[in-house]
Amino acid sequence: MSQLDERIGYLVKQVQQSFRRACEEQLRTVGLSMSQYAVLRALADAPGAPAAELARRTFVTRQSLRDVLSGLKEAGLASVAAQPSAGRALPVTLTDSGRGMLDQAERIVLEVESRMLSTLPAGDVRQLATLLTTCVENLA
């Protein structure tokens, strides 16, 4: 075992990359990328959120979000209001088609997550979630 294999940060990144790759492969069957799924999920969690908030929630730059949103709008999965509801930010919402696509994508992502955790006992999964949450809180 190399020193890298013992580094928690490296292992977290390795899991994240493997999870993303597996999700991307499966999401491709419904015509979505992981980034598009993340934006759809964020829109469901925060309806009407402005683009800046969506970028924060999905861990991407505003430019990357603009590109993803453009594709989602073209596909009829999201819409951007013509007028701001408050301030200058234009609210972004899921369309009915977007909700349907999110439902399909959610099943795919949850199946990949289930496969990732399949050999871990339920107690270990709960402990892993607790430990990872603590790590996030420690760095916040």
Automatic annotation (TrEMBL):
Q: Which UniProt keywords apply?
A: DNA-binding, Transcription, Transcription regulation
Q: Which residues belong to any copy of the HTH marR-type domain?
A: 1-137
Protein name per the record: MarR family winged helix-turn-helix transcriptional regulator
Leader sequence residues: none
Identify one Pfam family in the record.
Answer: MarR_2
Which InterPro entries does this chain map to? HTH_MarR-typ
Q: Please tell me whether the keyword Transcription regulation is annotated for this protein.
A: yes
Phylogenetic classification of the source organism: Bacteria, Bacillati, Actinomycetota, Actinomycetes, Streptosporangiales
SMART domains xrefs = HTH_MARR (SM00347)
